[in-house]
Amino acid sequence: MSRTIISIDDSDIAQAVIQTTLSEFGFDNVVSFLDPAEALEAISSGTVAADLILLDIMMPGIDGIELCARIRGLAQWTDIPIIMLTSRKDTNSLSQAFLAGANDYVTKPFDRIELQARIRSSLRLKAALDRRRTEPRQPAGNGKAARGGGAAFPSSEPIPGLVAQRFSLHAALSDLGESDLKDLGIVALCIDRLQGDHDFNKADKLDIIRATGAALGQVSISAGNLFGHWEDDIFCLISLRSDQAALVDLATRCMSGVAESAVELPLPWGDKTVTISAGIVPPGAAKTVAGGMADAINAAVRASRGSPGSIEVKVSPTVSQGPNVSA
């Protein structure tokens, strides 16, 4: 293949494994860096170019999260997929990596099939986004906005198994600035009881996530909003056209859609009912884009752990809240 992949990992053993594995996948153009500072210099100066980056989190000097954020700050690298390679299962570290701009992750020692699938999926999504950006923009439709005019996101395209991917969401978020915060509304949806002490095997967990994504994909979402899978058990919707009441209504419809799907799944807690909880950051509540995403996701996780099937809103100055909505 002609695709070029950059591998950044301070372990020469890990680099050798990555090189061999990628070669077996058909990726022969691999540029390896043991020193994250050297990698940043080469990327910043334009010495190297790539279609995808594999980036270790735990590295000396500049760790993977900081390096990811610095790479995302370079205009020509904002759309290059970044997959984190980590031995950590620390949710906070992974969340920080995603907020820094990572698109996906694989836990080391990685499963070869999973790594190949995630690389090819990221490359396909990058190609699709490139095609979309070269096509003439279509009118957003005649749907009316809940908050007057304002910009809109391009509609997300369905992807088999999941309604969308984090890459599409991040690409949209990276285009937002401080002036958009007054209109930015975020809904995070968390699959209840998928985290914690339950003993899931990987296949069952993926089945639950995909089935939930398929159910959410049937919920009607207004044009101009972007909805997709963010990470693991989290789905997110970002909007520049919905007020707080509209976001609460959307979250409620998503919760109902999943409950009504009645998907038969092997759940370790005995019953077969999948439910979701929601966290909402309404327009004007986020101080930064990344902070708003973190607030919405954290609110959804708190709601899921505290009262499964509920909604937590960061602030609610005007909306009339129902019995399952907390501020």
Write the layout of secondary structure elements.
Layout: E1 4-8, H1 12-25, E2 29-33, H2 36-45, E3 52-56, H3 64-72, E4 82-86, H4 91-100, E5 104-107, H5 112-134, H6 166-173, E6 185-191, H7 202-216, E7 226-231, E8 234-239, H8 244-261, E9 276-281, H9 289-306, E10 311-313, E11 325-326
Parallel strand pairs: 1-2, 1-3, 3-4, 4-5, 9-10, 10-11
Antiparallel strand pairs: 6-8, 6-9, 7-8
Proper CATH architecture of the largest domain: 2-Layer Sandwich
> So what's the CATH class of the largest domain?
Alpha Beta
Q: Give the CATH topology of the largest domain.
A: Alpha-Beta Plaits
Computed CA radius of gyration, to the nearest angstrom: 20 Å
| Structural category | alpha/beta
The number of distinct β-strands equals 11
Overall geometry comes to globular
Tell me the name of the CATH homologous superfamily of the largest domain: Reverse transcriptase/Diguanylate cyclase domain
Helix content: 25-40%
Poorly predicted tracts of residues:
137-165, 316-323
What is the CA–CA distance across the termini?
52 Å
> How is the largest sheet built, in terms of strand order?
7-8-6-9-10-11
| DSSP strand content | 15-25%
